[in-house]
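QA checklist item 7 of 12: single-chain prediction sanity check.
[x] sequence parsed
[x] length recorded as 264
[x] structure emitted
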Amino acid sequence: MSAYTIACLGKGGTGKTLVSTMIGRIARDAGLRALLIDADPCMGLTVNCGLTGIRTVADAREEIIESVRRIKPDTPEWETRDIVAFLLSQTLVEKDGLAFIAMGQSQSLGCYCSLNSLLRRMIATIVDRFDIVVIDAEAGIEQVNRQVVERVDQALFLADGSQRAVQTCILLRDTVAKIPMMANCRMNVLFNRVPAVPETHRQTLEQAGLPVIGFLPPDDAVSAADADQGALHGLPAGAVTYRRLSAILGEIGAVKPAPSDDFR
């Protein structure tokens, strides 16, 4: 069975990295094998989880390009696949029961369509080892979709209380609708760091076909953990963010729900 894939999207500063990290933590605590994919060229998610200096998919891609250039034209395809598989295996990092892949930023110019296709097929074999995959899609879901996953089950749009965040969600809806591999994904909005969902925002979003699935209020436990690099994935299970997000994940069918107060 393929992994359940969630992509966290939204304008900068709405908490995509926080939510991506917490989804991985909640899935891990529920006994699921969780893979977090960092699509931010600045690698915010992996740095946030205390991982620095790791090999990225972009690093592997550069090495693969150089290796393929040295391969003779009559080299068997399986040998190329073995090179790709070996270099990609070095991008998978595990820490505290979670697995990570960072996309990084490729430097090579030119058309490498066949290589990109092979990369995606090989990464898919890694992704299929997991129960849930979470993409922190800072770099844009189109790039991630081309390079990593065959489909996205849930597009989770993050918003704060600003009108700009609401408009960004609507623009993202239009972008997602144009991507064939996301044609059947669910799209929901999650408000973050707000005491309640502004009713005008809820109405605007729902009129645009984007149901609001809930909100995460300001949380002192998150602020404290965020100040300590690498601590977010260890946020106490009693924290309001943990409990509410657990319930939301249960509602979308990603993780078995945990008891929680009203999160809508």
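[x] summary fact logged: Strands lie at 4-10, 34-38, 93-95, 98-102, 132-136, 154-159, 186-192, 212-216.
[ ] second reviewer sign-off
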